[in-house]
Amino acid sequence: MKKEIVIKHLGFVLLLNGVFLFISFLISFFLQETSTLALLFSSLICGIFGIFPLIFVERTEHISFSEGLTIVVFGWIVTCIVGMLPYLMWGGEFTLANAWFESVSGFTTTGSTILNEIESLPKGLLFWRSATHWIGGIGIILFVLLILPQSKGQRITIYNTEISSLSKMNFRFKARKIVQILAIVYISLTLLETISLMLLGMSFFDAINHSFATIATGGFSTKNLSIASFNNIGIEIIIMIFMILSGIHFGLIYGTIMLKKENLFRSSLAKTFVFVMFLGIVLVSLKLYLSGNYDFWTSVRYASFQVISLGTTTGFATEDTAHWPIFTQIILIYFTIQCAMTGSTSGGLKFDRVYIFFKLIGKQIKLLKHPRGVFVVKFDENKIDEKLEQQTLVFIVLYITVFFITTMILTSMNIDGMTAFSASIATIGNVGPGFEKVSSLGNFALIPDLGKYVLSVNMLLGRLEIFNILALIMIKK
Amino acid sequence: MKKTLKLKIFASFMLLIAMLAVAGTISIVEFRWLSKSVHGLIQDNYKSIEASKTMIEALEREDSGILLLLLGEWEEGREILNSADSLFLSAFETANNNLTEKNEVDYIKKIESAYQTYKSSWERPIVDTDKQGNISWYKDDIHKKFAETKFVVNELMSLNQSSMYQETSDLKDRSKRAIMPGIVSIIAALVFSLILNFFITRYFVNPISELAEAVNNYRDGDNKLRSNITSDDEIKKLELAISGLLQRIDNNNNTIRK
Fold first, then answer.
1. Cystine design at A110: which of A105, A277, A342, B179 (Cβ 3.0–4.6 Å)?
2. Has residue A150 got a pLDDT over 50?
3. Tell me: the pLDDT tens digits for A42-100?
4. Neighboring chain B residues of A38 at a CB cutoff of 8 Å
5. Cβ–Cβ < 8 Å for A472, A68
C-alpha cells in the first residue's frame, strides 16, 4: 500500500473541513465571540495538514482497493479528530471525552449530544456543530470525490468503498454521475428547507443550521428544547417533509424530478418505507390518545414528528418521549433499529436490509413447502443474488451483536437497562436520542467517559458499515 | 512551478513555523486577556464588595449608637454615630466611584436614598425627648429603616459577588483556552514531524540510496545506469549528471580502445 497516496487524500479531507471551520471562524469573528481563536486555529491546523502532503506527493493515477478502504476509514477518523479541536479549545462543557463524542456524533449524523446548555454556545461553534452534520451527511469522502481533480480509476475505487452495493441499485448511472446527483439533491434540499423555514419565521441562522441537521438526518439543534422550542406547527410540518425526503434514496428523488423510470411512485421499497412509517404514526397516535396523554390532534402531532424523526434517523424532538407509554416506546425503538433507506444520508442498519430480511423469511417459508423450488428475492426490479442475501443476513447478525455487546458494556458501568439499550441502538443506528436518561429532550452528559468512547465507536461502525472496518482489519492482517 | 528539494523543504518548514507562530500569538493574546481580567476582577468587583462590607459594618455601629442614645448616653452615642456615618459615607464614595456592573448605578441610588431616610431619623435629638427609652419608636421606625438600608447594601454586594463568580469561571475557561493552542501545537508538531520524516525518507533518502545502488551496479558491470527516479528535482538532476558523466567516460574509453 502506498502510504503517501493515503496521506494525500486525507489531506483533501482536512482541507474540506478547514473551509467549513473558516466559515465558522468568520461568524465568530464578526460576532466577536469567545470561540473566534479556537475556530481560527483549528482551520489553520486543517489547512496546514491539508496542504503539506501536496508539496511532496506527485499526481497518482491508480488507487488500489486497500488504499481506497484505508482512505475512507481513516478519512472519517481524521475528520472526527480535527472536528473536536474547536470544542476542546473553546472549553465550557467540552472535556476530551465530550469533545470527541460531540464531533463523532456530528460527523456520523447521529445527533446525540453531551451539552446541557446548547444556547450558551457561541454562534460560530453552533454553526460548526451543524456543519459537521452536513459534511458527514453526504459522506466526507464523496465530497472529496467531487473536488478530486484526478483520474477516473482513482475515483471509482474510493467510490466503491464509500457507497454500499445496496445504495447503487436505484442508480442507473456511472460513478461520477451518481456522485453529482447525490450532491445536487443534497444541496437543493438544503436550500429549499432553509428558505421554507425562513418563510415560517425562523431566523436565517437557525434555518440554515436546522436544514443542515435535517438533510443530513443528524438532529443537532441550536435550541436546548430542539424543535419544541419553536412551538410552531408549520415549522414542524416542513421539517417532517424534509426528514422523509432525506431518508429516501436520493436516486429516487432525482428520478422523480427528472421524470425517469426509477422514481418514488414506482419504487415498492420507498412506498413500503413510507407505509411502515404511517402505520407507526397511527399506532403511536392512538396509544397516546387512548392513554389520555394528549387530545387527539396533539397526539397525532407529536406522534408524527417523533416517528418520522426516529424512522429517518434524524433525532429532532418536539416532546420528551421518556414519559410516553411503553407501547409507544417499543414502536419508536423498532424505528430506531430499522433506520432509513440506503442511498439517503442516514446510517445504521437501513430499511432495505430489513425489507430483504422479511423477503428472505418469505422465501424460506416457500422453500419449506417446495424444497426443490427456485425462488428469487426481488425488489424494485432488482434481483437479490445469494451473495447479497448472505451479506444482508451476516450484516444484521453483526449489527445485533455489536449493540448487544455495547449494551452489556454500558450496563457494567451501572447504567440502567433502558438507557444502555436505547443508547446503544440509537448510536449504532446514527439516530441520536434514546429513552430514560438519554431521551429525546435529554442528553448523554450523564454517561461515563468510557461509555462515551464506546458509543463513539458504535456511531462510527453505524456510519462506516461494519464490513468496511472488518475488511480493513482483515486486509491489513 | 517546479517543485525542487529546496522548495519542498522550505515550504514544509514554513508551514510548521506558521502553525507555531499562530499558536504562540493566540496564547499570548489569551494570556494578556487573562492578566487584564485578574486585574479587573480585583479592581471592579472586589473593591465594591469590600465597600459594601464596610457600609454594613458602619450601619451596625450606627444601630448601636442609636441604642445608646435611647438609653440616654448622649455623648458616647453621638460619637459612635458620627464616626460610623463618616465611615459609611467614605465606603459609599468608593462604591459610587467604582461602577462596573450593569445597573450598579441603580443600586447606588437606592442605597443613597435609603441611607438619607435612615439618617434623617437619628440626626434629630433623641436624648431628653419623648424618643428616649421609646422602644416602639425604635422597633417601628428606626429598625425598619436600618433593615431596609442594610438590605440594599447587601443587594449591591450580591451583584458584585455573582459577577465575581462568573468572572472566575470565565477565567478558568480562558486559561484553558490560553493553554490549549500550545498543547494542540505540540501534538500537531509531533505528527507533522512524523509525516515529514516519512516524506523525507520516501522522496529524498530512498532515491539517493537507489541512485547509489545503481552506481554500484554500474561499477560491478552493468552497462547502463539503471535507476527509477521519477521526481523532477535536484536528485533527478544528480542522476542525469552521473548518467552523463558515465556516458562520457564510456565514450572516452571507447575512443582510447579504438
1. A105
2. no
3. 999 999 999 999 888 877 767 777 787 788 888 899 999 999 999 999 988 899 999 99
4. 177, 180
5. no
Q: How near does any CA of chain A get to the CA of B213, in Å?
A: 22
**Which tens digit of pLDDT belongs to each residue from B96-151?**
988 888 888 999 999 999 999 998 888 777 777 777 778 888 888 889 999 999 99
Torsion angle of the four alpha carbons A196, A197, A202, A203, in this order, in degrees rounded to the nearest 10: -70
Residue to mutate among B2, B19, B191, B201, with most A CBs inside 10 A, is B19
Q: How far is CA A87 from CA A115, A196, A315, A450, A460, in A?
A: 11, 30, 21, 19, 19
Contact B22 A89 (CB under 8 A): no
The dihedral over CA atoms of A284, A290, A293, A298, expressed in degrees to the nearest 10, equals 60
Closest to A101 (Cα-Cα) out of A118, A120, A86, A84: A84
Per CB-CB distance under 8 Å, the chain A contacts of B230 are 58
Beta bridge partners of A382: A379
Q: Which of A1, A6, A37, A51 to mutate to test the interface with B (most CBs of B within 10 A)?
A: A37
Which of A368, A342, A369 lies closest to A354, judged by CA?
A342
| Domain ranges for chain B | 47-176
Of A48, A56, A90, the CB nearest to B8: A56
Task: Write the class of the CATH domain B47-176.
Answer: mainly alpha
pLDDT, one tens digit per residue, over A283-304 is: 999 999 999 999 999 999 999 9
First-to-last C-alpha distance (Å) of chain B: 46
d(CA B175, nearest CA chain A) in Å: 10
Nearest to A316 by CA among A223, A451, A425: A223
- Among residues A126, B185, B41, which one has the least CA distance to residue A113? A126
Of B26, B176, B198, the CB nearest to A37: B26
Q: How far apart are alpha carbons A127 and A112 in whole angstroms? A: 16
For residue B190, give how far its alpha carbon lies from the nearest alpha carbon of chain A (Å): 12
Interface of A with B (CB under 8 A): 3-4, 7, 34, 37-38, 40-41, 44-45, 48-49, 51-53, 55-56, 58, 85, 88-92
DSSP-assigned beta bridge partners for residue A379: A382
Q: Would you call B45 exposed, middle or buried from its count of C-beta atoms within 10 A (0-12, 13-18, 19+)? A: buried
Query: Residue B100, CB half-sphere, CA atoms under 13 Å: how many?
Result: 22
